[in-house]
Amino acid sequence: MAEYPICPVAKPRMTRADKFSKRPATTKYWNFVDQCKLEKVVLPCFGAHVTFILPMPASWSQKKKAQMNGKPHMQRPDLSNMLKAIEDAIYQEDSVIYSIKIEKRWGMIGKILIEER
Question: Model's pTM, two decimal places?
Fold first, then answer.
């Protein structure tokens, strides 16, 4: 299992105007892409199990954080946009991916776990 210390983000909807005016969502996405390249993230074309660990908000109490650690993350950002972000960050042509299992969970810090099967 490979563990990458990269906080997952969802791929934002981009427009032509994003080339000129840098929105926070697109800046965050391009930083994510750079981190994936720096960490040399590997995503197999088939049989991978990808787990996105999203960090818990700082405003949560320690009790709630302990309670939610490892539990399913059922809020925004949505899973499909997070997968799209990592596919586009790694592959020039992401149509080569044909089988993948994905999930997202709460964690103390953000990271991406990729297990090959």
Answer: 0.88
Q: Are 86 and 112 in contact (CB under 8 A)?
A: yes
**Tell me: the pLDDT tens digits for 45-61?**
888 999 999 999 999 99
Fold category of 2-116 in CATH: 60s Ribosomal Protein L30; Chain: A; (3.30.1330)
Q: How far is CA 6 from the centre of its chain?
A: 8
Mean of pLDDT over the chain = 90
Assigned token pair, 106:
């709460």
* Residue 68 pLDDT greater than 90, yes or no: yes
Query: Residue 79 in 3-state DSSP?
Result: helix
Joined together, the tokens standing for residue 80 give 């499909």
Give yes or no for a contact between 97 and 91, defined as CB atoms under 8 angstroms apart. Answer: yes
Domain boundary assignment for the chain: 2-116
